[in-house]
Automatic annotation (TrEMBL), chain A:
<dbReference type="GO" id="GO:0071038">
    <property type="term" value="P:TRAMP-dependent tRNA surveillance pathway"/>
</dbReference>
<comment type="subunit">
    <text>Component of the RNA exosome core complex (Exo-9), composed of EXOSC1, EXOSC2, EXOSC3, EXOSC4, EXOSC5, EXOSC6, EXOSC7, EXOSC8 and EXOSC9; within the complex interacts with EXOSC5 and EXOSC9. The catalytically inactive RNA exosome core complex (Exo-9) associates with the catalytic subunit EXOSC10/RRP6. Exo-9 may associate with DIS3 to form the nucleolar exosome complex, or DIS3L to form the cytoplasmic exosome complex. Exo-9 is formed by a hexameric base ring consisting of the heterodimers EXOSC4-EXOSC9, EXOSC5-EXOSC8 and EXOSC6-EXOSC7, and a cap ring consisting of EXOSC1, EXOSC2 and EXOSC3.</text>
</comment>
<dbReference type="GO" id="GO:0071034">
    <property type="term" value="P:CUT catabolic process"/>
</dbReference>
<dbReference type="Pfam" id="PF21262">
    <property type="entry name" value="RRP40_S1"/>
</dbReference>
<keyword id="KW-0694">RNA-binding</keyword>
<protein>
    <recommendedName>
        <fullName>Exosome complex component RRP40</fullName>
    </recommendedName>
</protein>
<comment type="similarity">
    <text>Belongs to the RRP40 family.</text>
</comment>
<dbReference type="GO" id="GO:0071035">
    <property type="term" value="P:nuclear polyadenylation-dependent rRNA catabolic process"/>
</dbReference>
<keyword id="KW-1017">Isopeptide bond</keyword>
Automatic annotation (TrEMBL), chain B:
<dbReference type="GO" id="GO:0000460">
    <property type="term" value="P:maturation of 5.8S rRNA"/>
</dbReference>
<dbReference type="InterPro" id="IPR019324">
    <property type="entry name" value="MPP6"/>
</dbReference>
<feature type="compositionally biased region" description="Basic residues">
    <location>
        <begin position="151"/>
        <end position="164"/>
    </location>
</feature>
<protein>
    <submittedName>
        <fullName>M-phase phosphoprotein 6</fullName>
    </submittedName>
</protein>
<feature type="region of interest" description="Disordered">
    <location>
        <begin position="137"/>
        <end position="164"/>
    </location>
</feature>
<dbReference type="Pfam" id="PF10175">
    <property type="entry name" value="MPP6"/>
</dbReference>
C-alpha cells in the first residue's frame, strides 16, 4: 500500500541521460553522473580538471540533494555542452511541457495589454496571475517631461525586469543599454490572438519550418510573446486572417497537413 | 580600613574608567573576565549543526530562452517593416557575433601595394622637412638642372681656410 502510494506520487529515480526524450512526472528525481573531483576531495588537481561549464537546470526542474527534481510533467530535453550558447556551457536539462498558463519569468519578452494608468506606472495584463507594472520612464528616450504616448488598450512588447513568485512583476521596454530594440507600443491595427506556450517556443526556435514556409507567402509582420500571445499584421485584413488561421491550426496539424494547406493558399 | 572601603564599592563603580587606575592587577583581571562573560552571554546563536556548504555545479534557470536558443520575438517578412527586418538580423546574429567580427578584421581600406606606393613618396616629402634650407635648394637644383653649373656653386660655398 505504502509502496503503491509512493509510486503514484512518482518518486522514481533514474539517470538523467536515460530519461532524455522520455516523459517525466513531478516528483521524479534525475540522478546526475558524479563529477570527477567532486568526491575525490583529497586530490585538488582532480577538482581543477573538472569541466568549467556548469549544468543549466531549466524550467520544470529544481536542484535537490540527489540531483534534479522534476516539478512539471512533460518530455525531458537535453542540450550537449558547448552547443553555442555561452550560458549553458556545461549542457542543459529542461522539461518541455505543454501548458497554456503563463508564469512570468525574468528576461522573457511578452506582449501585454495596458489596462490602467496609475500615476507613474501602467498596469499591463500579460496573462499571468497578476498584472505587471510598467513605469512610464522605462521607454526609450522617456524623461519626466517627455512621457511616452501610451493609452489604455494599447499592446506593448516588453521584457520582465522583476518576476518572482513573491513580488509583482515589473516590465520595461528598454534593454540594459537604454535602447528600445523593438520593444514598446506595437502598431495600432493588426490582430492579437493566443496560442499555447509550447507552440510559441516551436515558432521561435531557429529554423522553424512553419515560419520559413509562411515567410514565402506575402509581406507581413509578426510579434511573438513568450506568454502565448501572437500579433499579426499584413497588408489586408484577409491576408492577416489567413496567417492567423494557419498559426492557430499549426497546434493540431502535422507537417504534411500544414504543407497541403499552404500549397492550397499559394495556389490561389 | 582602606581594604574595607574597597570591598564596599560596587562592581559597576569599579568598572568605570577613572576607578581603573587605583585597582590592582588581580581585581582588574577578574573584572575583565566577568565583563567578557556578560558580553558572550548577550550574544545568542542558533543551536544547529554546522551547515555543510558544497559547491554546486548546477545553475537554476526559469526561462526557456537560454535553453532552447529562441529567436527574437519580432519578425517581418518580404519588406513589410524594414526597421524590424534590420533588427531581426541584428538580434538573431548575436550568437554568431564572433564570426562576424573576425570577418571585419580581415577587410582593409587600403591595399598593401597602395600603402607601399604612398610611403615611397612620403619618405621624400617628410625627409625634406628635416633638411636645412640650404641643403634643400641644393637638392632641387640637382633635380632640375643637372647640366648647368651645379658643381661650381657648391664649390663656391665650401669653407676656405684663410691664408696667413
Amino acid at each position: 500500500m505504502a509502496e503503491g502510494g509512493k509510486m503514484a506520487a512518482g518518486s522514481g529515480k533514474m539517470a538523467a541521460e536515460a530519461a532524455v526524450g522520455q516523459v517525466v512526472l513531478p516528483g521524479d528525481v534525475l540522478l546526475l553522473p558524479a563529477r570527477p573531483g567532486h568526491d575525490a576531495e583529497q586530490l585538488p588537481l582532480g577538482s581543477e580538471a573538472a569541466p568549467r561549464g556548469r549544468l543549466l537546470c531549466g524550467p520544470g526542474l529544481r536542484r535537490c540533494a540527489a540531483g534534479l527534481l522534476v516539478t512539471k510533467c512533460g518530455l525531458l530535453r537535453h542540450r550537449q555542452p558547448g552547443g553555442g550558447g555561452g550560458a549553458a556551457a556545461g549542457g542543459a536539462y529542461w522539461v518541455d511541457s505543454q501548458q497554456k498558463r503563463y508564469v512570468p519569468v525574468k528576461g522573457d519578452q511578452v506582449i501585454g495589454i495596458v489596462t490602467a494608468r496609475a500615476g507613474d506606472v501602467f498596469r499591463l495584463d500579460v496573462g499571468g496571475s497578476e498584472q505587471a507594472s510598467l513605469s512610464y520612464l522605462a521607454f526609450e528616450g522617456a524623461t519626466k517631461r517627455n512621457r511616452p504616448n501610451v493609452q489604455v488598450g494599447d499592446l506593448i512588447y516588453g521584457q520582465f525586469l522583476v518576476a518572482n513568485k513573491d513580488m509583482e512583476p515589473e516590465m520595461v521596454c528598454i534593454d540594459s543599454s537604454g535602447k528600445a530594440s523593438g520593444m514598446g507600443v506595437i502598431g495600432q491595427d493588426g490582430f492579437l490572438f493566443k496560442v499555447s506556450l509550447g507552440l510559441i517556443r516551436k515558432l521561435l526556435a531557429p529554423k522553424c519550418e512553419i515560419i520559413q514556409e509562411l515567410s514565402q507567402l506575402y509581406p507581413f509582420e509578426l510579434v511573438l510573446g513568450m506568454n502565448g500571445r501572437i500579433w499579426v499584421k499584413a497588408k489586408t485584413v484577409q491576408q492577416t486572417l489567413i496567417i492567423v488561421n494557419i498559426l492557430e491550426a499549426c497546434e493540431y496539424m502535422t507537417s504534411e497537413q500544414r504543407k497541403q494547406a499552404l500549397a492550397k493558399l499559394s495556389g490561389n | 580600613m582602606a581594604g574595607e572601603v574597597k570591598t564596599k564599592l560596587s562592581k559597576n563603580l569599579l568598572r568605570m574608567k577613572f576607578m581603573q587606575r587605583g585597582l590592582d592587577s588581580q581585581t582588574k583581571k577578574q573584572l575583565e573576565e566577568e565583563e567578557k562573560k556578560i558580553i558572550s552571554e548577550e550574544h545568542w546563536y542558533l543551536d544547529l549543526p554546522d551547515l555543510k556548504e558544497k559547491e554546486s555545479f548546477i545553475i537554476e534557470e526559469r526561462s526557456f530562452m537560454p535553453c532552447e536558443d529562441l529567436l527574437y520575438g519580432r519578425m517581418s517578412f518580404k519588406g513589410f517593416n524594414p526597421e524590424i527586418e534590420k533588427l531581426m538580423v541584428q538580434m538573431n546574429s548575436k550568437n554568431k557575433k564572433e564570426e562576424i567580427e573576425v570577418d571585419d578584421k580581415m577587410e582593409a581600406d587600403v591595399s598593401d601595394e597602395e600603402m607601399a606606393r604612398r610611403y615611397e613618396t612620403l619618405v621624400g616629402t617628410i625627409g625634406k622637412k628635416f633638411l636645412k634650407k640650404r641643403d634643400q635648394r641644393v637638392l632641387r637644383d640637382d633635380d632640375e638642372d643637372e647640366n648647368s653649373n651645379a658643381r661650381p656653386k657648391k664649390a663656391k660655398k665650401m669653407f676656405l681656410k684663410p691664408q696667413d
